[in-house]
Here is the input.
Amino acid sequence: MKILVFLPYKNFKDETLSGILLFFDKWKIKYELSSYRKECTGYHGAIKKITVGTAEAKPADYDGLMLVDGKGIDELQLYEYRPLLD
Here is the structure.
């Protein structure tokens, strides 16, 4: 199983991402971090480098997509961004 974890490039919830990655590592679930920028900054200052650009990610390579919540989702209106949803 492999999951694509999408981060808004600003103001994602650091604690949500930490919990998700802890769970994935514990259960040996493969994942890649994705966004529209090479580096993302969390609401509390965590900085994460992405491993695959969203435009380069191929849906057939993943079993699921997970969006990390936070103010960045609303600020960037990612729930309406058609290229991400497609």
In short: The chain has a mean pLDDT of 91. The CA atoms of residues 29 and 45 lie 26 Å apart.
